Amino acid sequence: xxxxxxxxxxxxxxxxxxxxxxxxxxxxxxxxxxxxxxxxxxxxxxxxxxxxxxxxxxxxxxxxxxxxxxxxxxxxxxxxxxxxxxxxxxxxxxx
Length: 95
Prior knowledge:
This is Calponin-homology (CH) domain-containing protein. By secondary structure, the protein is mostly helical. The chain contains 5 helices and no strands.
């Protein structure tokens, strides 16, 4: 086990079991907030990819309204949504 742990540390990776636990914990936290919006997380990597659920999560936890999201399916639409979310976070003073 020590060799595996050293390999994870050398590669900058978490123990895969710990990473799974973090994902599940974060998904449960998100779901606790998404219930207010009538949705839930299915897969963190996929659900946050286009920025729409990230924007929704920020609206739910802040009780503020973000800019209107881009509804396109192209990568630049997804990036625009994530940038809107990050701009909102920065506007709240988070660094």
